[in-house]
Amino acid sequence: MDIEVVLGENQKVDALYKGFVIKTDQPEKAGGDNSAPSPFDLFLASVATCAGFYVKSFCQQRDLPEKGIRIIQKMQRDPVKKMISKVKIDIIVPDGFPEKYKHSLIKAAEACTVKKHIADAPEFVVNTR
Questions:
Q1: Helices (H), the chain
Q2: How many separate domains does the chain show?
Q3: Which of 25, 42, 51, 93 pairs with 14 at a CA distance of 20 to 30 A?
Q4: Per-residue pLDDT tens over the stretch 38-74
C-alpha cells in the first residue's frame, strides 16, 4: 500500500495512489497558485467524507432515504497551538426522516475509519534513502 509523491511546479505536490492522481497545492498566501486543495484541506475533507460514506451506507442498508441528508463539519482551532482542537460533525436530515434512526446515524458516522485512525494514531517513521 504505497503512495508515491511527485513534486510539481511552484507549490504543487501530487500523490499517485491506486491509479489516481491526487493533486494538491497551497493557497496564494502560502506561495501557491490555489489550483487544488492543500494537503491539510484533503485531510479535513477525508474526515467529513468518511463520515458521509458511513451515513450513506447505513441508509442504503436499511432502504432509508438518503436524499436531502447533509453533513456539515466544523472545526475549532486552538489559538495558542494553532492546530485544530475540535471537529464537530452535524448530520442534517430532511423533514420526515424516521426519528428512531437519528441516533444510529450518529453511531454510523462515528464508525468512520479516518476518525478511528486519528483517535488511535499510527506511528510515523520518516527516512531518507
A1: 39-61, 102-110, 113-119
A2: 2
A3: 51
A4: 999 999 999 999 999 999 999 999 999 999 999 999 9
State yes or no: pLDDT of 76 exceeds 90: yes
A 10 A CB-CB count for 53 gives: 17
Question: Residue 1 pLDDT > 90, yes or no?
Answer: no
- Supply 98's cell numbers: 424516521
Side chain identity at 64, as an amino acid letter?
L
- Give the CA dihedral 48, 49, 50, 52, nearest 10 degrees: 90
Nearest to 53 by CA among 114, 109, 121: 109
CATH number of the domain encompassing residue 106: 3.30.300.20
Question: In this structure, are 47 and 31 located in the same domain?
Answer: no
pTM: 0.91
**Start-to-end C-alpha separation, the chain:** 19
The domain in which residue 10 lies consists of 1-36
